[in-house]
Design a protein that fits this description.
The structure is a homodimer. By secondary structure, the first copy, chain A, is an alpha+beta fold. Helix content of chain A is about 25%, strand content about 20%. Chain A has 6 helices and 9 strands. In chain A, a hairpin with a 2-residue loop joins strand 1 and strand 2. Chain B binds a DNA duplex through helix 6.
DNA sequence: AAAATAGTGTCTTTTAGACAATATGCG
DNA sequence: CGCATATTGTCTAAAAGACACTATTTT
């Protein structure tokens, strides 16, 4: 920028294009054995009334991660319940936001035992939507959020196999079955994403809202398709339909048990036992998550033997 | 931001803090069997005279990745020789740049057969510095680039084990030995980074340059320690010292051969044979990289059996 | 007792790793 | 030939996976 030897050319920020910087969040959870993500319904243009990832602008003296936590709390009333956040990637196509040049830094996290999310200060709706719904094309997200979500799904699919992250879906104390069920739910709902571009991004063009803030058809469609609206503890039904063509087969209980117990530092026994569920069964031992960062060896989904 | 029901509040970019957005690049290569990264020497404040990752500001209508490629070419004259670039992460601490609020998006890539890098338009120096040098604390980078580099090293260490990326260090046609040698070099030089914070970041405070543009001591130190300056094909000596305490043991030739050949789609035979090196030996078959994206099963470094 | 879930044992097949043996070039 | 490197073979130990069996609860 400066010629060699020029010693004192002060940097002038005005020489460089100003960007808006935002954060967006992909918060996973498991409800009714289906993997879900937290979505809000936008109440301002552009994409008014569309589903979107929670997020917003980074403030002047704020860390990126701080901004992510703040926006999450503001828009969904979810605080520490979402565990540690991890960066997913940054999306900065010049046309991704019609209002101004914006790059967004996406974070993802895992939450257990969420409070029923409230609309935030802006009275938006926030819900835990099954990823299967988004995958099936029933729901299209604002901006390039479909792309972000796809990347997040791939990331979690991959990462739970070699890290202890699956424990984050469980309560502080959990049984091995609960952990196995988390693996099954995640792999069941994400295995389709590992290779394909199953989610078509919504065009990133400016789109004028059509109707009222909350489009009732969208809202209704989603509820019918997936989430029971106001039941505190929804019935143990799996409402989300399995993705067509998903040939995931559940993990073997016995082998899983042996696998996780032999990974040193993965699970920590508490000595306590769980009370069996209503349907009976032998009480299971309760564990807490250990302190390792990586699973050696990793845990893999069963690979369906193809051709040959 | 807007009250519920307010339909027409136009977005005003001035309401949000303006950021500078930059890209930084971590370009890996292997020279003399040592893993290296491309560094430049800064010729403007802050951190004038310090080593830094190549990078710079994103322009108004530019993709992030486009910006990365442009900056790489401008500062180091390296173009397509660096293969595909992949995002590493984004760094946006409020104090990371003393000039203005800046977030930087880091990319990384792998290059083979680099041209001897020239100083760019700004007459900076650019060199392929052994990561061992940076790891040992001999070289401290500008801004938070030590942190970025550490993250990149961890990423590549991990990622070559389950992707075919190691082939990118090789020529278009390569022997299995050359590929194995790439794995050995990478793991040899990165295995220390997998768990620890071995690189201390330089404080992110503004630091006034001490002397001339290119501090000769730094330059000299680096050359002595690692890179032969102007030899086109440096002697087959390993000049970079192995990191102390690195207990990496090389891969078994026979087992490696079998492993890579059984991974379907990893290597594609050309039928041709290489001519043996000056030291003799049976000519090896030449392969090209196949088209898979993931290695199943992955290739692992030998895990040193600890305690027990 | 029957059903349901947790946990253990056992057997078979596959894979990983150490290392020996052979192949093919060079001087 | 003797050396160096490539490639294949062999044997052993460990891991993965299928699946049967036992244990402990509820109805």
């Amino acid at each position: 920028m400066y010629a060699l030897g020029v010693t004192d050319s002060p940097h002038n920020p005005a020489d460089y294009p100003p960007f808006g910087v935002t954060v967006d969040l992909v918060i996973f959870s498991i409800i009714n054995k289906s993997l879900r993500i937290l979505l809000i319904q936008r109440d301002e243009p552009p994409f008014l009334g569309k589903w979107a990832l929670p997020g917003g602008f980074v403030l002047k003296d704020e860390n990126l991660e701080q901004a992510a936590r703040r926006e999450l709390a503001e828009e969904t009333s979810i605080g520490k319940e979402a565990g540690p956040l991890e960066q997913l990637g940054t999306y900065g196509h010049p046309d991704r936001d019609p209002r101004q040049r914006v790059v967004t830094v996406a974070y993802w996290g895992i939450a257990h035992d969420l409070p029923e999310p409230q609309g935030g200060s802006d009275a938006r709706y926030a819900e835990h939507v099954p990823v299967a719904e988004v995958a099936s094309g029933n729901i299209r997200l604002a901006f390039d959020h479909n792309k972000i979500l796809t990347d997040a799904i791939r990331r979690i699919h991959h990462k739970i196999s070699y890290t202890p992250l699956a424990t984050r879906f469980c309560a502080k104390e959990f049984t091995i079955s609960e952990l196995r069920s988390a693996y099954d739910a995640i792999w069941q709902d994400t295995i389709e994403f590992t290779n394909l571009e199953n989610i078509k991004p919504i065009p990133a063009t400016f789109e004028q809202p059509k109707l009222s803030l909350v489009t009732p058809d969208l809202k209704m469609k989603y509820q019918i398709a997936s989430a029971p609206p106001k039941v505190a503890n929804p019935p143990a039904l799996t409402l989300a339909k399995p993705i067509k063509g998903s040939d995931y087969t559940k993990l073997d209980t016995g082998n899983f048990q042996r696998s996780v117990l032999q990974i040193e530092g993965f699970l920590q026994s508490t000595g306590k036992k769980s009370s069996p569920s209503a349907s009976g069964g032998r009480p299971a031992e309760l564990y807490t998550a250990g302190d390792i960062k990586e699973l050696t060896p990793p845990i893999h989904p069963k690979t369906p033997k193809p051709k040959k």
